[in-house]
Inverse folding.
């Protein structure tokens, strides 16, 4: 184990050369991104070939390309394709990209559904193709159309069906989301058609799953159509998998594992194909439903899994002294090597676009700085005569190479060819950038013509207008038109634009128009001659003859064109077109376009869907650099494909919350020794600057925490980096910088190498999963790590790997990085139990407020900054379904919080006739009352009530649990009447210690005024802050107060308005350092209220909080000291 096969492609056919591969050295396959690198290196595959007497043909020197005695002479050489495969895992049906192949069963009544339709297929696609792919179908254009399942180039599934066999009522109904499977990744697809959904319509639903066994997840939104429908029965169309005979699209190349057609949704299978149970090489079989199948054309049932497909760049002959040993050391390379070898940069997007159209003449003006004429970009085209142009001086049009700038006396003169069809009209055009409008009219663009009594047509700009003038040979004006609208003129300057002169046929003759367009927009403005004189005779352009005046000196110009169609835009105008360098494309769209233009083999995910990074303009660079720029900007991974020669792109979106591709267990012996984690600073970036190409920049810095820029031990110091990204706008930079900071600061150990011995019998159950899913970018988890490592599953992303193969060796070395950075927030499932991605936001910082022994199942948790933890109990619980239980990390131990509540709280949901009694919170505590008689306090109507029978006699109510240094208290206060004679003083008590306490208090004044201040005891220590609001008897106010160190803060607001964002009053005092909490009420001296009461409600110590927890979830049992950090074990991170 394993059995290996080596093949080379000689003239379109794969030829087995396994017998000539030497086993004295193992084959080494390396793929992916080296540790610390930003981009993937070319992959490599090394092995030795016997070049003596061949065991395949008997020839000597068979693998010497220049040896005429070799049967491979003329058939091998530089970059000969090579494939290395292993025979392992289950069989599957291989449908190649070519030649045509499929799995087919003849049409029969046994394939007819009686109602609803349920189709399922499990496969691993080679790629999402450049045209539509035929996954499965019962379809024949000449006989019967029944149904078909297609995969479009945008990654969406398309289904069509017919009630009568000849007509599709809803042709190609697409899924609203693309499949997320990458090339070579196994996935199950499914669609169901409910022909009568019970609401007068029909419903088409798409699904995906890891395998046919499920679980199935809905893909996008179901399609609900009007009216009921049906699927024809009795039709004559074979059922085909991988390719439909006469659809005319691309066959869906890949590995097929299973297929089912069910009679009704979740109904009995009409076909039940399990290709993993078939015999390799079989050309016909009968499935579990009794349906006969035939393997057609280039398809085959096989159990060979490609581990490498690449190219052999060289065949160096080697031999030993005495010529007794002759061999060729082969080091095959991935396509990245060839693409990076001496490739020339692609021309500008305009230079590439314009010649591909029906342009008759084109001068890019991208000539070098010393050019004395402007070359035509068309074969056989004549150069233009130029004068006083500062060539290659303007480089700010992203869709172009540098262009010339007008100097004093600048001219451009170029002859024009004849028009193939004058009846269509004509169009001459030029790109330019005018910074400001000239104060007087200046000649902008001119065409010399012949015929119709017209000799020149010139466009003018300046003097508050745009004007077109047609003149005769004597210079007399034949016709003119103008436009002075300020909005229209604003579109002609201040940015790169295009100006054009156009001849358009109209009733009775011709109209000549002057148009201008800002580049990168669909905005168009024009003025015309017909608006003043009506139709004119036809005149044919004979040359472009621009003689620019002084007012236009400094204006860059370029890309002058001439065509026979006035409505044809040869520049590819609009946002995202060649006109502005394809700005605002996404990475998959740019890669797919470049793949089509340059015949570049590249597999990308579906094109639609949100979340991709918008790219900046495509500048002049090699095609490989352009693809890499797109991947770098999007944050995805550009790699080489494993089972075909080509590139693959795994976008950033595909890495978010992906399930494990391979789940291993250290305790079960799945990992080969040694496993050597590193707890170092490699790959750390805690200060990053992201710059947009030719744009602004943004910086993100980790200010606190163990990997922050703070000097040790508070942090690790500054580890800065910078990156230049070609994104569309400066507004994207802040988020990208923050995301890259997140990627650069995972506070966990690195695992540079994870080793797997696939010959190990304990790995036998994982071989199929490894073959199907483990590639560069795969997520790998390792449960039950050794006890001396952190007691959590090791969670990794494979950045690269080396696979070592021989007759008795199958080892894998995976270079990995932490996967935790890819756990990001997602919209929760309807059922919280179905959530896998993190769904909870962490606090800004929480610590234990008291020591915790190993068996304490309640923790006291302090949160001083940001929001506190959600609560499951208290006056107003904030937790919703799915919030609890939640796993927390505290000092290396993982605990599960099952309940959270304020440390003390009271909702007064009881009745007490004298006193306030016990609080309902978990913390066992009663109200302690001082000042006045117990009968002055009652509990009724959901409130704790205090009677104030006499002035200047405070009533204190507090809870004496344990002494708090920092705490936050929230309570509502409702007076029974407006103060008379003197104000009411009501508030909370913080740090009650003997006769001292801090008192955030409301001053309820005469006439309904409300002010806020902080006192120590009865003495104010802050300013008196008017709230600007009033109160009345029965009006409820909320008061929030807190102590943090020497700072005491408070804010208050009526219950009818939203809580203010900031604190309204702050005091600084160091006299009291800790104490209890409570509430107090009193009237000032001179108060004359009678029967006055103050009602308190919603009392809670917001922080600290009490958490009920299950301890040692990760098998770590230990004590924790007060001040130990506590946070979510899997916090929700907002993705880029």
């Amino acid at each position: 184990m394993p059995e290996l096969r080596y093949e080379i492609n000689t003239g379109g056919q794969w030829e087995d050369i396994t017998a000539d591969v030497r086993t004295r050295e193992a084959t080494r396959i390396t793929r992916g991104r080296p540790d610390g690198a930003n981009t993937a290196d070319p992959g490599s595959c090394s092995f030795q070939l016997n070049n003596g007497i061949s065991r395949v043909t008997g020839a000597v020197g068979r693998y010497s390309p220049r040896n005429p005695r070799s049967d491979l002479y003329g058939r091998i050489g530089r970059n000969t394709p090579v494939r290395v495969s292993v025979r392992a895992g289950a069989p599957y049906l291989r449908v190649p990209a070519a030649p045509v192949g499929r799995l087919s069963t003849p049409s029969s009544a046994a394939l007819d559904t009686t109602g609803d339709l349920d189709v399922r297929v499990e496969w691993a696609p080679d790629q999402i193709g450049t045209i539509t792919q035929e996954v499965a179908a019962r379809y024949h254009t000449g006989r019967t159309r029944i149904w078909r399942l297609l995969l479009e180039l945008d990654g969406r599934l398309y289904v069509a069906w017919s009630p009568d066999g000849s007509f599709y009522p809803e042709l190609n109904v697409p899924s609203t989301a693309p499949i997320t499977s990458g090339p070579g990744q196994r996935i199950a697809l499914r669609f169901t058609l409910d022909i009568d959904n019970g609401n007068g319509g029909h419903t088409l639903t798409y699904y995906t799953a890891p395998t046919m066994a499920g679980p199935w997840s809905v893909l996008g939104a179901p399609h609900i159509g009007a009216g009921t429908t049906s699927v024809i029965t009795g039709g004559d169309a074979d059922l085909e998998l991988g390719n439909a005979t006469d659809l005319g699209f691309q066959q869906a190349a890949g590995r097929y594992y299973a297929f089912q057609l069910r009679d009704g949704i979740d109904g009995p299978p009409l076909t039940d194909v399990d290709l993993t149970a078939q015999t390799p090489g079989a050309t016909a079989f009968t499935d579990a439903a009794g349906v006969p199948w035939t393997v057609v054309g280039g398809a085959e049932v096989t159990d060979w899994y490609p581990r490498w497909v690449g190219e052999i760049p060289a065949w160096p002959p080697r031999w030993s002294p005495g010529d007794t040993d002759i061999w060729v050391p082969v080091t095959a390379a991935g396509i990245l090597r060839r693409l990076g070898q001496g490739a020339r940069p692609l021309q500008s997007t305009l230079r590439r676009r314009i010649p591909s159209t029906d342009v008759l003449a084109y001068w890019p003006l991208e000539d070098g700085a010393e050019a004395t004429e402007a070359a035509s970009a068309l074969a056989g085209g004549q150069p233009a005569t130029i004068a006083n142009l500062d060539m290659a001086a303007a480089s700010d049009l992203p869709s172009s190479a540098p262009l010339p700038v007008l100097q004093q006396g600048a001219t451009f003169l170029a002859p024009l060819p004849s028009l193939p069809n004058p009846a269509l009209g004509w169009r001459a055009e030029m790109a330019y950038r005018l910074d400001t409008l000239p104060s007087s009219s200046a000649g902008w663009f001119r065409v010399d013509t012949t015929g119709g009594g017209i000799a020149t047509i010139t466009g003018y700009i300046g003097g508050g207008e745009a004007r077109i003038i047609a003149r005769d040979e004597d210079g007399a004006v034949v016709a003119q038109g103008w436009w002075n609208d300020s909005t229209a003129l604003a579109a002609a300057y201040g940015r790169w634009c295009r100006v054009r002169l156009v001849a358009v046929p109209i009733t009775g003759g011709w109209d000549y128009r002057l148009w201008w367009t800002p580049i990168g927009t669909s905005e168009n403005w024009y003025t015309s001659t017909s608006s003043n004189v009506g139709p004119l005779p036809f005149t044919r352009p004979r040359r472009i003859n621009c003689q620019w005046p002084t007012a236009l000196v400094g204006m860059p110009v370029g890309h002058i064109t001439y065509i026979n169609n006035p409505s044809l835009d040869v520049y590819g105008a609009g946002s995202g077109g060649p006109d502005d360098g394809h700005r605002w494309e996404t990475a998959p769209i740019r890669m797919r376009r470049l793949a089509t233009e340059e015949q570049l083999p590249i597999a990308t995910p579906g094109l639609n869907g949100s979340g991709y990074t918008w790219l900046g303009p495509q500048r002049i660079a090699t095609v490989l650099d352009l693809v890499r720029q797109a991947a770098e900007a999007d944050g995805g991974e550009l790699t080489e494909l494993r089972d075909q020669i080509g590139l693959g792109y795994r976008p950033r979106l595909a890495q978010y919350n992906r399930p494990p591709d391979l789940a291993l267990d250290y305790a079960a012996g799945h990992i080969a020794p040694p496993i050597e984690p590193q707890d170092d600073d490699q790959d750390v970036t805690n200060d990053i600057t992201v710059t947009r190409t030719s744009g602004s920049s943004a910086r993100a810095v980790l200010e606190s925490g163990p990997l922050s820029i703070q000097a040790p031990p508070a942090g690790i110091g500054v580890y800065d980096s910078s990156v230049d990204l070609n994104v569309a706008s400066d507004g994207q930079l802040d988020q990208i910088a923050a995301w890259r900071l997140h990627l650069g600061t995972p506070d966990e150990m690195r695992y540079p190498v994870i080793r797997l011995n696939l010959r190990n019998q304990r790995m036998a159950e994982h071989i199929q999963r490894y073959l199907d899913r483990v590639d560069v970018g795969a997520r790998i988890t390792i449960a039950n790590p050794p006890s001396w490592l952190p007691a959590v599953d090791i969670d990794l992303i494979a950045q690269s790997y080396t696979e070592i193969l021989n007759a008795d060796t199958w080892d894998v070395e995976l270079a990995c990085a932490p996967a935790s950075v890819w756990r990001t927030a997602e919209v929760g499932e309807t059922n919280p139990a179905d959530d896998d991605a993190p769904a909870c936001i962490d606090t800004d910082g929480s610590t234990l407020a008291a020591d915790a022994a190993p068996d304490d199942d309640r923790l006291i948790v302090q949160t001083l900054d940001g929001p506190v933890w959600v609560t499951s109990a208290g006056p107003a619980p904030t937790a919703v379904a799915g919030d609890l239980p939640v796993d927390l990390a505290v000092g290396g131990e993982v605990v599960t919080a099952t309940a959270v509540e304020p440390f003390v709280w009271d909702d007064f949901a009881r009745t007490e006739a004298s006193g306030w009694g016990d609080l309902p919170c978990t913390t066992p505590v009663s109200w302690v009352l001082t000042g006045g008689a117990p009968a002055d306090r009652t509990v009724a109507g959901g409130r704790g009530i205090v009677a104030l029978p006499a002035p200047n006699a405070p009533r204190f109510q507090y809870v004496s649990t344990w002494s708090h240094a920092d705490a936050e208290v929230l309570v509502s206060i409702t007076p029974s009447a407006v103060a008379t004679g003197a104000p009411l003083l009501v508030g909370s008590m913080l740090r009650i210690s003997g006769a001292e306490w801090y008192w955030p208090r409301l001053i309820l004044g005469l006439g309904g005024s409300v002010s806020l201040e902080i006192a120590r005891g009865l003495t104010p220590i802050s300013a008196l802050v008017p709230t600007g609001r009033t109160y009345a008897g029965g009006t409820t106010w909320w008061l929030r107060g807190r102590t943090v160190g020497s700072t005491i803060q408070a804010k208050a607001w009526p219950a009818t308005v939203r809580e203010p964002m900031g604190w309204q009053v702050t005091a600084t005092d160091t006299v009291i350092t800790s104490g209890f909490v409570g509430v107090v009420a009193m009237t000032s001296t001179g108060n004359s209220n009678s029967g006055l009461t103050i009602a308190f409600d919603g009392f809670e110590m917001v922080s600290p909080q009490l958490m009920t927890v299950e301890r040692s979830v990760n098998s770590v049992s230990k004590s924790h000291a007060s001040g130990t950090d506590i946070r979510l074990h899997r916090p929700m991170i907002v993705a880029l």
